[in-house]
Every structure is written in structure tokens, then in C-alpha cells.
Amino acid sequence: MDKKKAVQQSYELVRDKILNGQLLSGEKITEEKLATDLGFSRTPIRDAIKRLEYEGLIINKKVVKPTDKDLRNIFQVRMLLEGYSARCAATYSSAEQLATLAECVEIGKNGSYDEIMDANERFHQIIVQTSGNDKLIDTINRMQSIIYLFRKTVVFYNRPFLIEEHEDIYNAIRDRLPERAEELMKQHLEKDLDFCLHLINSQN
Amino acid sequence: MDKKKAVQQSYELVRDKILNGQLLSGEKITEEKLATDLGFSRTPIRDAIKRLEYEGLIINKKVVKPTDKDLRNIFQVRMLLEGYSARCAATYSSAEQLATLAECVEIGKNGSYDEIMDANERFHQIIVQTSGNDKLIDTINRMQSIIYLFRKTVVFYNRPFLIEEHEDIYNAIRDRLPERAEELMKQHLEKDLDFCLHLINSQN
DNA sequence: AAAGGTTAAATTGTATACAAAATTATCTAA
DNA sequence: TTAGATAATTTTGTATACAATTTAACCTTT
Questions:
Q1: Which of A88, A193, B52, B184 could form an SS bridge with B58, CB 3.0 to 4.6 Å?
Q2: Under an 8 A CB cutoff, do A136 and B73 touch?
Q3: Of B58, B74, B40, which is closest to residue B147 (Cα–Cα)?
Q4: Residue B135: which of A47, A50, A73 has the nearest Cβ?
Q5: What are the C-alpha distances in Å from B203 to residues A90, A108, B17, B74?
Q6: B119-162 residue pLDDT tens
Q7: How far apart are CA B78 and CA B93, in angstroms?
Q8: Cβ contacts of residue A40 below 8 Å, gap of 6+?
Q9: Interface test with A, best of B31, B74, B80 (most A CBs within 10 A)
Q10: What are chain A's domains?
Q11: By the CB < 8 Å criterion, does A94 face chain B?
């Protein structure tokens, strides 16, 4: 296997620094500093920053600090796209996809912190995949980094009923109830949003 | 006013070359060639290409050639996001926004080719704006270039009922009928899609 | 002639130097 | 002191050189 190129490495390193809090919200990024930090030249760093700007993690040279409004906006888009995806899942999903969803729900009940984090992400990922719509998948993926920031809090603070909701969604999909699957997914995301907003606002 | 930077110029030049057919679907792009063509160095050209890749106009160094499936996918996302936007418009839109929408419909009836093109684009643009959701607006804008490619054919071949549909949507918004506005917008986009697909497939 | 391998050419990736622009600090006049 | 101008510094934008990689061309060998 060939080793990753500098752009890719830079991208991943900077992204991770942001996601795990080594680079704080509002902190200003300079190409030169990152370059010497990571041991690359400015060229690949610039590309990486462009990509992060595109994903919304960096906004004019500053690490993003999402406002309540941003959060609501992101979740609104998710509700529309993932709601539709859930409907698709209830209509199209294969036996294999169903099995994997069931597995994610199961891990959610008994897994370790990291396993749960992972399973929850996969649960949503699989449902989005069943839409079979690359543009839709792409749009969600681009919001993924920011979403990740919040999924972490939701799991860490152990939001009540999260797994139960996943299970309900899974059941609707398995039972081929498109309308219900969509509705449940939307409600589920709405609750995630409320939980995040509540947490954020009680911390400051 | 300060003159645009090389990246911005390159971006616009290359994009326009693609949109007006100077660069054909499937044609392969090389940085060096574009650089000497446009009289810049490779550096800004690379950035411009990256941006066009993000927008989906270039896919691994080739000018994109959207398939039927791509077209369906884009329109599906638009139906979800613009449908929701129409609902918002029917709920929130200001008197000024309503007036501008009415104006777009009017131009659609009597304007010149270029005016109609412009008015149709603005019609959709305004409705999307009323959502007040930056993420949503952003997502649509990123698909704008590809959408443009098709809007051109729709107007050029003078799709029947296009203006009437805009008017119906406008009326629903003005009369504050969110459900209806959403439904009409979705139907409208569905018809645009069918028209595009029909044209494309009858040409090849 | 076809499969495979080797060399050559084209293209992209990265580093670096310098120019342009933006930012910050410093100074001066009111 | 402070508003505004000017200089110093930092940071970004662009060009260019060279390295790495990919792609194309050209031989062999069967």
C-alpha cells in the first residue's frame, strides 16, 4: 500500500486537531504555522485548508464556532435528506443492509463508548446509502465533520432514548413503512438538535 | 474597485467555458494547458480546478458528463430542499420578496430570452433565500452550475407551462398556502426533470 | 499479433522564492 | 489622548523549479 500524500495527511491531521479540540473554536489558522508544525510546505497545507473551508470547519482562516442557528440549519437539512433516505430504506433496503442496521442497534445497547459512537454513525450512514443518491450522500458527508462534533456530545452525555429511537426507526424500515420511517427519523433528529442546543447553552 | 485575483478569474473563465460548451463533456483538462491558455501559472489554475471539482463540473480531470442518474439525483435533492423552501416562502416571505417573485413571473411572460433565463433563475433563488438557512442555500448554490446547464435547455426549447407553473407557485406563496406551495414546487421540478431527460435522450 | 515489460514523456505533487495584499505597530498633528 | 496617516511586519497569492507519479510509447518475446 502506498503512503498517503501530503495533502491528504495534512487534511486529516488538521481536521482531527479541530475535532478533538486541539484547535479551538475561533482560533486563527495560518498556513506557515501549520506547515512548519506538520512538516510540510505551504502548498499541500493550502489545499487541505481549502477542503476544510469547503466542509465548513474553517471559515476565513478561523476554526468555525457554530452558532445555535448554524446547528439548527444543519439539522434542518439533515431532517429533509435523512428523512427521505429513511423512506428509501423502508422501500428498497436489502436483507444485508437490514441486518447491519439491526447490528448497530444491538451494539448501541451493549457496546463500549467507542463502539457506540461508531455504531451510531454507521446507523445513519447506512440509511443514507440506501437512497442510492450520490448527490445526497455527498451533501450529508460534507456536513459530517461538523455533525461529528455534536454526535460526540450526544453520546458522551448519554442522551435518553437515543437507542430506543434507533430501534423504532429500524423497525419501521424492516416492516416496510416508509412514511413512518421518515417521520421517526425527523423526530429523532429534532430531539438530537434539542439535546445539543440545551447542552451548549447550559455550558456557556 | 480592485481587479479580481487570478484564481477567481481562472475559476470563472473555466466554468464559463464549460457552461457554454467550449469545453466539451468528457474532455480532459490539464493544468499546464489551461495555465498557458489563460496566461496564469499552474498555482491559481489548480485552485480553480479544485473548486470546479467541488461543484461537480469536473471529475477527475475530465469535464463532467452527467448521466440520467446524476440528473435525477440532483433534482431529487432540489425537490427536497426547494420544496421545503417554498413552504418557508409561503410562511415567512416579505412583501418585497413577493413583489420580486411577481416581477419574475411577469418577465417570464414578456421578456427576451436572456431576461427570461435570468428571471427564472432569480425566481428559484429568491424562494431558496426565504428559507433563511445558509447551509441549505449553500447546498443549492453548489449545484447551481450544473443546474444552469439544464435550465438553459429548458428555456431554449421553451418548455410548455413553465411560466404558468411559476405563477401557480407564486400564487400559493402569496396566498400563504405552505403545503400547496411545496407540492407545486416539487411537481414543477419533476416536470423540469422529465423535460431534460427527454431532450437528452432524444438527442443521442 | 498479443502479453508483458522497459523506457520515455506527460502530468501532477511538493517545495521554495518572491510579489501583492492585509494586518499591525508606530508616529504625528490636532 | 486619539484620529488618521505612514511605515513595518505578517500573511497570502502567484510563479517557477524540481520530484514523484502516472500515462503513453516502444520494444521484446512468445
A1: B52
A2: yes
A3: B74
A4: A73
A5: 36, 52, 21, 21
A6: 999 999 999 999 999 999 999 999 988 888 777 777 778 888 99
A7: 20
A8: A6, A9, A10
A9: B80
A10: 6-63 (1.10.10.10), 68-203 (1.20.120.530)
A11: no
